[in-house]
Structure formats: C-alpha cells, structure tokens
Amino acid sequence: MSRLRASIHASLLLLPAVVLLAAFTHVPAVRTFIGALYTTPRGNRPEVFIGLGNYRHLLDDPVFWQAMANNVWYAALTIPLSVILALVMALAVDARLPGRAALRMAYFTPTVLPMIAVANIWLFFYTPGYGLLDQVLGLFGVAQTNWLGSRDTALNAVIAVAVWKEAGFFMIFYLAALQTIPHDLREAAAIEGASRFTFFRRVTLPLLMPTTLFVLVNAVIGAFRLVDHIVVMTRGGPDNATALLLYYIYEIGFRFWDSAYAATLTTVLLAILAVLAAVQFLFLERRIHYR
Amino acid sequence: MAEIVVDNLTKVWSGSPAVDGISFTCASGEFTVLLGPSGCGKSTTLRLIAGLEQPSAGAIAIGGRDVTRRSPAERGIAMVFQSYALFPHLSVAENILFGLKVRRVPRAERDERLKRAAQTLGLTQLLDRKPAALSGGQRQRVALGRAIVADAAVCLMDEPLSNLDAQLRQEMRAEIRGLQRRLGMTMIYVTHDQVEAMTMSDRVVLMRDGRIEQQGTPAELYDCPASGFAARFLGTPPMNLLPAAAGAGLAPDVPAAAEGSIGVRPERLRVDAPGHGLTATVEAIEYLGADTLLTLDAAGAKLIARTDGHARHRIGEAVGVSCAAGDLHFFDAGSGRRVEANGNGCNAPERGEGA
Ligand SMILES: Nc1ncnc2c1ncn2[C@@H]1O[C@H](COP(=O)(O)OP(=O)(O)OP(=O)(O)O)[C@@H](O)[C@H]1O
Ligand SMILES: [Mg+2]
C-alpha cells in the first residue's frame, strides 16, 4: 500500500518535467518526422501526404548537398582542432608556471562570451583593409583580403571562430581531468626513466580518454548545432559557401516558410547525429579506462 | 657497490628547513630505516635521495658516484611509494614492465624478468588484472614487483605498509626483509613505526625536526639511547623517564643528581614488597598474556613496569620498585642528551653519531 503511494507520489513529482519535455521536445520531434511526409500547406492548399517525396526532392537539391559538404568540412576541421587546442591549453595551464590562474581565465573567456558577441568581435578582425587580421598581415606585405566575402576563405574563416570559441570550453574539462591524475604517477615514471613525452603518451593520454570521449561527443554536436556566427557573419554566403545544415534548415523554415522540407532536413540532421554518437560510443568505449 | 652516502644534506622550504644538514652512510646491501615522528623530514630525505627534490645544500653519492645533480632515472634506484603509484589503466603485468619497456629491454628478457618477479611475489594469477581489482596487499606486491623487476641496486620505500591492516603488515615486513636480503639490495626504508624499524633494519637513522637524533643498530638505539627523545621513541611501552631526584632511589649507590632525568626500561624494573627501592602504588594493570604491564605511581612520578605472566598485584597495593644501577640512563636537563656512561656499557655518544 505504502509502496503504491510512494510510486504515485514519485510519478506526480515527475509529471511537470515530463509534461514540459513531452510538450516541447518529444511531441515536436514526432510531429517533425510526420511533417516530413507531407507537403507544406499554403494558403488554401491543404497539406498532402506524399510519402518520401520530400526526401526525393532533397536528393536533387544542390544547395542541400553543398550545405552537407560544407558541414562535413566544418566538422572535420573544428572537431580535431578545438579538441587538440583544448588539450594543449590544458597541459599548458596545468604546469607550474607564474600567473597560470590569469592564463586559465584568458583561455576560458571566449566560452563565457555569447556566440553573437564573439561573431561581432571576429567581424572586426576580418574586416577587409582595416580589420586586425589585414593590418597584421599588411605589416608583412600581404595584400588585403575579403576573408568573409570570398568563396575560398569564408568557410575556413568561420571555422576559426568556432575553434576559438569551443577550445576554451573543452580545456576546462581536460584541466579538471588532468588535476585528478595523481602526482606520484609522474614521479614513479620519472624514476623508471620515462621522458615527459613517454609519460604523456603512455599515462596521461590514456587516463584522459573518458574526457576525450565526452569532449568529442560535444564537439560533434557543436559542429552541427552552432550556427549563430553564420547568421551574424555571412548568412550562409557568399554563394552558399558557408551554408551549414542547420543554417540551411533555418533558411528553408523561416525565410522560405517551407515547413515540410525543413522537417525533412531536420530528420536527416538528427539521423546523422544519432549515427555519429553511436559510432563514437561503440568504437571508443572499448578503448577507454574508467576509474 | 651500491653504498649510499648522504653528506650534510639540507632542504629548505620557504625559509624553514625540513632537512637540516644530515649525514649518514648506508652500506651496500644494508637495510637502513629512516625513523622519526610525523613531519621530521623522513620523506623529504628519501625524495632527495631519489632525486625527486633538489637539495638546498649537501651531496648524495650512490655507489661512489656523486648523483646530487642527476635525474632520478640516472641514479639507478627503484622506489616504492606510500600510495603505490600504480598506473590505473595498465594491467599488473604492464605496470611491472613499464620501466623495462621505457628502457627498451628486449622482449624475451622482459618476459623472463616478469615471470620471475611474479613468481617471487605470488602475482602469477593476477597479471591481467587492473589495479582497481586488487586488494591493498596485492597492490603493495605489484608496487614491490615494479621495484624488483628493475634490478636496481638501491631500493627506496616510503611507508610502504601504512595502508595495510596489522596482520598483513606483519607478513609484508618479513617478506620485504627477505626479498631485500635475497636480492642484496641496498634499502632505505622510511617509517614512523618503531616496531618496523626494530624488526627490519640493519641500521636505524632516528630523525627529529630535520636532524639526526641518533643512528646505529636497533640494539644500540634500544640499549643506549642518545637522548630522552630516542629513549622514548623506541620500545613499547617507552622507557620510563623520571626527574633525577625522584629516580635516584631506584637503585643503590646512585649518585643523587639534582638535575636532569633518569630513564629505565619497563622490563628492567623489579616489583617487590615495599622497602625495596622506591615505594609506589599500583595504579593500573594491563594483562597482555605473556606479560603484564603495571602502571605505578611513586610519589607523583609515573612508572610502567613489565612483569612476567599474571600480575600478583592488586590495584591500590603498595609495592617497592627497583632496578640494577647499570640499567639506569642519565639525560641532561637542558639538551636531553645522555650525560654519562655507567655500568650499562654505553659511552656518551656525540650528537648524530653511532654509539
Ligand atoms: N612540498 C613542500 N612544500 C613545503 N613544505 C614541505 C613540502 N614537503 C614537505 N614540507 C614540510 O617539510 C617538513 C617535513 O616533511 P616530510 O614530508 O619530510 O615529513 P615526514 O617525516 O615524511 O612526515 P610523515 O611521517 O608525516 O610522512 C614538514 O614540516 C612539511 O610540512
Ligand atoms: Mg612522509
């Protein structure tokens, strides 16, 4: 009897959270999957079931493929660069050096700033002619460049912003993990004659693997999710050179109001993320030592 | 071949010396214990010898070679840490082989040495386990394995047994001692447990506040403590120390010194009927099986006497306590140092020198 009452109480306590989650996450997600199977209702034209018609359209959509290719390149650069940079920064500020607290703060600052603010700062860096980047490069005689306006440089320019923003965040996780590695392991290795590099490769890196998995999952999600700076800096341009999947979804959904096609793209994006997460867990999990 | 000579070693931490000009020699193949209360600088001394800290002054030579400025790896030592310092992500075998791999010892020899070490320490069944899946005693063995597989002539240990229970500690004491003898290692072993020091060592270096209070064989330290501190630190229960005036009555013909203190080991006291030596009352009786400890009150001075078997006394009973004149030790009032030789065969030693 009291067990029953306890479980009723528990259910009631969980109810508000469940209602919120369902109303704002689960139901819309399911509606999205379903919506992808219909046409977009417009004016006096009601929606029509067309099965996989939207997906067929997607396969023929050159902008989708461009956004896909952009996103793959974007992920392939931001993920390793931000993770490696995070690890290097964490190792640097973990060492005993004067002023390391200030250095930690400095590395972490980009994370605290909103992405919109970051994007505006970088807009200034990239301004052709009198932007910071061109001014510095001008000292070495490099001609001025329209970093965000040129098809060749725009995507890499926004990648640099994302790496700058994300690395500090990942650094905090690496730093926390580094500080849990007991100091006497280093001393034991030193007595055995292990160089700093050997110690790093054979002890530090393996002990950081759980953190690396966590950071990688976050980096992958971030690579498909973080588009605020695209909105501020390039709006996908020039000529879709910086259109990422999520930004393309935003354009389809809220600029062209094609909700069914946006739902189709969303489903594809979710599928990609699910596959990537599963792959990471299955492949890395086995090679990780958890304490 | 692996004699360790520590010469006037000093380590200063932000103004205050943790190790203050100590010198001692640890002969090749000898088991030396660094003993002392918490914070006296034992670990610091050991870490200086290992090269994990840089000395502020002084020199360290191992095997006749000055290693003061050498890296830990160049000193030809193995070390067992109090926390064992096992690599948590590596199996027992990989932990033991870590150093050999780093030193690029050929595979066949590595396997051979691993097999031998595992057999010696009874780890053969555990080689594939991770440290987290081992008991404290097994981890201790793995740490020992890592030390002996290196074939280093010198082994340093910092309170290696302090995380084990009493039973296991006793077993490991004998095992470590046996291992050290068999392999002929020169051992420096840090502990604050005087029983470990007494039972395991060839030599004891007793430290206090960063200085050496006394060094010598366990018997020398026990029989001829160089100071009141040394007298109280070794032996359970510790030596009785009485004001000289109160203690003079214990034995006949003792020159009644006005100052300083008189020490006598509990097992040297004779407890008889009142009239012999000092008169005291029995305050407490602790029966330990083989013997019994009597806590006595002699006009305000507390004494502990060790008597055989069951006590024949009752609490509150008046007794006479006495001892032979040769069993008394005299200590200076100010410095606490031993002041004179008497019939017990000790010379008054210099500070920091063997008796
Ligand atoms: N890294 C350090 N920085 C500053 N002071 C230190 C450091 N390491 C040790 N000390 C100081 O040096 C003194 C001796 O320390 P040490 O660790 O050698 O003592 P110990 O004899 O090993 O004691 P225990 O039996 O408690 O381990 C202590 O007063 C300690 O506070
Ligand atoms: Mg210590």
UniProtKB/TrEMBL annotation, chain A:
Coiled coil: none
Domain ABC transmembrane type-1: 68-278
Keyword Membrane: yes
Main subcellular location: membrane
Topological relation to the membrane, as annotated: Multi-pass membrane protein
InterPro entries: ABC_transporter_permease, MetI-like, MetI-like_sf
Single biological process term from Gene Ontology: transmembrane transport
Organism domain of life: Bacteria
GO-annotated cellular components: plasma membrane
Compartments, record wording: Cell membrane
Signal peptide: none
Membrane-spanning intervals of the chain: 72-93, 105-125, 154-176, 205-227, 260-284
Keywords for this protein: Cell membrane, Membrane, Transmembrane, Transmembrane helix, Transport
PANTHER family associated with the record: ABC TRANSPORTER PERMEASE PROTEIN, INNER MEMBRANE ABC TRANSPORTER PERMEASE PROTEIN YCJO
Family: Belongs to the binding-protein-dependent transport system permease family.
Protein's name in the database: sn-glycerol 3-phosphate transport system permease protein
Organism encoding this protein: Chelatococcus caeni
Organism classification: Bacteria, Pseudomonadati, Pseudomonadota, Alphaproteobacteria, Hyphomicrobiales
From TrEMBL, chain B:
SMART domains (alphabetical): AAA (SM00382)
Cell location: Cell inner membrane
Any Pfam family the entry gives: ABC_tran
Alphabetic keyword roster: ATP-binding, Cell membrane, Membrane, Nucleotide-binding, Translocase, Transport
ABC transporter domain residues: 4-234
GO biological process, one term: carbohydrate transport
Listed InterPro entries: AAA+_ATPase, ABC_transporter-like_ATP-bd, ABC_transporter-like_CS, ABC_transpr_MalK-like, ABC_transpr_MalK/UgpC-like, Mo/tungstate-bd_C_term_dom, NA-bd_OB-fold, P-loop_NTPase
Name under which the protein is recorded: sn-glycerol 3-phosphate transport system ATP-binding protein
